[in-house]
Design brief:
signal, TPR-like_helical_dom_sf, two-stranded antiparallel ribbon, Serine Threonine Protein Phosphatase 5, Tetratricopeptide repeat, SusD-like_N, 19 helices, two-stranded antiparallel sheet, SusD_RagB_dom, membrane, mainly alpha, globular
Length: 481
């Protein structure tokens, strides 16, 4: 994302503590000569965007829930996650350090940009974008690990880096502060050339999700009404909408489009990702370099879609044709070369391994509609007309009949199911199961391929990666690990 903005600055901002090392980058840019112009500010902010990634590593979201089965002939860390034999050295749980790199970049922008002589409105906007990005990083951290260090100032020294963990409540207070301050200074939209930047809708939508998460399983929590109100603010902006079909929402043309409120943008065969190939059919010749077959969808997920649901064909690959020969894929065959595959984020036009240009969504308008429906049901102890309307917008776009006349519990379960079907493979399933108190039951119920997961209540949090604890001895480990 916006890679062109970050190249001159990488040597400076990758680690804020480089100031202490007195290094002179090849470009002759240092903290003494940089942060002088509006272009410098733009580049520094570009470095913040470059650290933005999907909310959770796709392997973690798929294999620690009831949505996916890792191929047991693949990397050993995935089956260990799947069976809940999770240790702090598992290579797939290491998003901790990367998030703090992004946080430090945002802190640098907030510290340095205000002193640059430039347009004041643009300056405020850049700082607001950085606050929104910092909030996203902290929201991911607190949901994955619980208590985490709260660092809101630029790191300028090697001294004082061994900071302890701060309570979840304190982290959420900062997230809410950042998002509220950001929404006040962010625009509703940008020209097409600036698509992908943080907007009012991004800040409001993330606040809605924060409130929904904080409400958790607490009936009558005030956060339900706050979540509904913020989601409604996004809807009332009039900026976002659903595409006519689910397929359009994941087409290359959806990059920067009306449904993507926050997305990680890629360019085909220029700066791409490899999720389509990675989660594609093992050794499938239809992908550049052949499919990796990291994990397959579970039968419980696959069968949850009815035949009328148009999302099923977009989300899963059930057959392919190569050299005139059709290969049909199975949801139960243990052979990874014959397994139904995830294809939702696959860019079929990519010619290079890892060159897929489809956007990775972090927040879509469909998600906001479903949050609004869920929060209204909870806040009013039953679905309102607006709650039904929001839920049915998502359902009818998928080709399903609208719902009506449901009780509080039936509507709650309908929204939960709709979130699973609509947001599959978008990093939402684990977070949704945890915030609604259903993770353990869902994992225990999904026992295909002899999973027998050893899941315990403490597994709602991941362990702090051992490499980060080695670097910071004041990082206490989560209980159970």
């Amino acid at each position: 994302m916006k890679i062109k903005y970050i190249l001159p600055l990488l040597a400076l901002v990758t680690l804020g503590c480089e100031n202490q090392l007195n290094l002179v980058p090849v470009t002759n840019l240092t903290d003494a000569t940089y942060f002088k112009t509006a272009d410098d500010a733009r580049a520094a902010l570009g470095a913040c965007y470059a650290s933005l990634n999907a909310p959770i590593e796709h392997s973690v979201d798929v294999t620690t829930t009831d949505d996916g089965v890792p191929f047991l002939t693949g990397a050993a860390d995935r089956p260990l996650l799947w069976r809940y034999n999770i240790v702090s050295t598992n290579t797939l749980i290491g998003g901790f350090g990367g998030a703090y790199s992004g946080i430090n970049r945002a802190n640098i922008v907030m510290a340095r940009v205000p002193g640059i002589p430039m347009d004041e409105a643009l300056k405020k906007r850049y700082v607001a974008e950085a606050k929104c990005l910092r909030a996203i990083h902290y929201f991911n951290l607190v949901r994955l690990y619980g208590d985490v260090p709260l660092v809101i100032k630029e790191t300028t020294s090697l001294e004082g880096l061994a900071v302890p963990r701060d309570p979840v409540a304190k982290i959420y207070e900062q997230i809410e502060t950042d998002l509220k301050e950001a929404e006040a200074d962010l625009p509703k939209s940008y020209p097409a050339s600036e698509s992908g930047r943080m907007t009012q809708g991004a800040a409001k939508g993330m606040l809605a999700k924060v409130y929904l998460t904080r409400a958790g399983t607490t009936k009558n929590s005030p956060y339900w009404a706050q979540a509904a109100a913020k989601a409604k603010e996004v809807i009332d902006l009039g900026v976002y909408d659903l595409y006519a079909t689910f397929a359009e929402a994941f087409a290359l043309t959806a990059r920067g489009g009306k449904e993507n409120i926050i997305e990680v943008q890629y360019l085909t065969d220029v700066r791409g990702h490899g999720l389509g190939r990675g989660f594609g059919v093992r050794s499938g010749p239809i992908y550049p370099g052949g499919g990796s077959g990291i994990a397959r969808p579970t039968a419980s997920l696959f069968n949850a879609y009815t035949s009328a649901d148009q999302r099923k064909a977009v989300t899963f690959l059930t057959s392919y044709v190569f050299n005139g020969v059709t290969t049909n894929l199975s949801i139960t065959d243990p052979d990874p070369t014959k397994a139904v595959a995830f294809q939702k984020l696959w860019d079929r036009t990519a010619k290079t391994n890892g060159g897929e240009g489809t956007s990775i969504p972090i927040l879509r308008y469909a998600d906001v509609l479903l949050m609004y429906a869920e929060a209204l049901n909870e806040a009013n102890n039953g679905p309102t007309a607006d709650a039904f309307a929001a839920l049915n917008r998502v359902r009818t776009r998928a080709g399903l009949s609208p719902l009506s006349g449901l009780s509080y519990q039936a509507f709650q379960e309908a929204v939960w199911l709709e979130r699973r079907l609509e947001l599959t493979f978008e990093g939402s399933r684990r977070f949704d199961l945890i915030r609604t108190g259903r993770l353990l039951a869902a994992v225990k119920a999904e026992n295909s391929f002899n999973r027998n997961a050893a899941i315990q209540p403490f597994h709602v949090l991941l362990p702090i990666p051992q490499s980060d604890r080695d670097a910071n001895p004041n990082l206490a480990q989560n209980p159970g690990y």
